[in-house]
């Protein structure tokens, strides 16, 4: 902000591939490699690990300032950091508790849409405001107002954080800021357009129907925050609509319809198994904070439905129950849907399911998220359809299960969404820094931005930091 004051926006773990939005980073890039001098505060835009994963290292390096985030993020962040601490530092319960206490003392929960003064000196006045970003629960973009009274200079910088897709389930779409002089924007899907939600949901339903028709299990590898809750929300809706259809059929006087193979599936009692203690904790917070849901989700709630705690949903907590569940589903011929982490199959409970089920044609694997190069998920995605194999924990497993991919279940805005964020502003920025994406995504976004500025004849400086 000036020579003496700096603000840090996010402090995440670097990714193996920058585009794996939520994967765990490999070791070796954990150290804080920048100076902490003058950093007055950290703003956490949202709690994905690539945005907050290095907070433990930041604290260890001596950072003394507050961690500013939205109110929902303030509830989610300790859960994320507890997990990160256990993986990276220690599982000793006393240490974990001491650490969490420290974290909770540092967190300052800011309500959305309200200015918060950071610095107020004769030379610099700085304030920040969080706005909803629609990416995951608690996600925010950050408006920073800087005022230098001596120079008579004022500017507004906007940091997008990760922006949500407009038709994502549960959360409302982000609204463009009023204005920005400088915009720092993500570009994960800067070169892509998403499939619309209705057709995606229809495809999900079709894949599930097909997959479950042969009495097997559908494995869905998913990350704990965001995608898992979106999936549960869509599954509840499919089951709800199916149940309505079934009851209409059994009404007296209803015409007798032919029972197809697909409708022989009993959706009403189809178990949906959430096998991830971490995902269950996040889902509980999503449930608790329903005031942050969008209009559609709230109206379902008002009608007595409960999109994130429905009758078919079973959560598996302990490791013992997890192993028993793997056994039971492998041995019985009862259809089920399992959601387990991690999303790229590189570790976590999903691996036990894969080992037990990949060799059996009755089962299916459904990918709903990006699979980074070098992960087991990518191998299954690539070699599964040609009866290949995958290596898990150093052992070879033949893939006889069917493999499907449904794209677009991602809580990131596509190119159109990113453009709306920029061109929806009353006053367009004259400097845009494009970050957080693969090279091609960045350059495609830059191209499209230049084109629309050209039409508006407004001066623009685009920077793609190396
Ligand atoms: Zn994110």
Quick overview:
It comes from Ectopseudomonas composti. This protein has 466 residues and is an alpha/beta fold.
Note down, in words, how this protein is organized.
The protein has a domain at 197-247 and 263-409: Rossmann fold (3-Layer(aba) Sandwich). It is globular, with a radius of gyration of 24 Å. The protein is built from 13 helices and 19 strands. A seven-stranded mixed beta sheet has the order 5-6-7-8-9-18-19, covered by helices on one side. The protein starts with 5 loop residues before the first strand and ends with a strand. The protein is of the alpha/beta class and 466 residues long. Zinc ion binds next to loops.
Count, helices: 13
Proportion in helices = 25-40%
The average pLDDT value, as a whole number, equals 90
Q: Which runs of at least 5 residues are low in confidence (pLDDT < 50)?
A: 16-28, 256-262
Task: Please give the number of β-strands.
Answer: 19
What Rg do the Cα atoms give? 24 Å
Q: Fill in the CATH topology of the domain at 197-247 and 263-409.
A: Rossmann fold
CATH architecture title of the domain at 197-247 and 263-409? 3-Layer(aba) Sandwich
Approximately what portion of the residues adopt beta-strand conformation?
15-25%
Shape: globular
- CA(first)-CA(last) distance: 21 Å
| Largest beta-sheet characterization | 7 strands, mixed
SSE class? alpha/beta
